[in-house]
């Protein structure tokens, strides 16, 4: 039972890691082209910077959680 939980947890965390990596790349490419990844009325640089920062923080958090899985 614990093996199944562990495998599902690792699969879910790796899926999130890939998702945040894709969001990071999209935000970085849009930052280079000065286009916002989402348009909410603020500057493109600010929006993309916020998305990049939160993506990096989330990726580090996922790596930390993967390290705790035994």
Structure, briefly:
The chain has helices at 2-32, 44-68.
Describe the protein in words.
By secondary structure, this protein is mainly alpha-helical. The protein has one domain (2-68). It is built from 2 helices and no strands. It has helices spanning 2-32, 44-68. The longest helix is centred in the N-terminal third of the chain and has 31 residues, at 2-32. It is elongated, with a radius of gyration of 15 Å. The two termini are 14 Å apart.
What descriptive keywords fit this protein?
70 residues; mainly alpha
Strand content: under 5%
Average pLDDT figure: 94
Radius of gyration: 15 Å
SS summary, helix count: 2
Helix content: over 70%
Describe the protein's topology.
Layout: H1 2-32, H2 44-68
């Amino acid at each position: 039972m614990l093996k199944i939980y562990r495998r599902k947890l690792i699969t879910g965390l790796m899926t999130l890691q890939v998702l945040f990596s894709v969001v990071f790349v999209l935000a970085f490419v849009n930052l280079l082209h000065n286009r916002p990844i989402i348009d909410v009325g603020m500057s493109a640089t600010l929006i993309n910077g916020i998305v990049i920062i939160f993506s990096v923080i989330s990726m580090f958090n996922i790596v930390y959680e993967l390290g705790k899985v035994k």
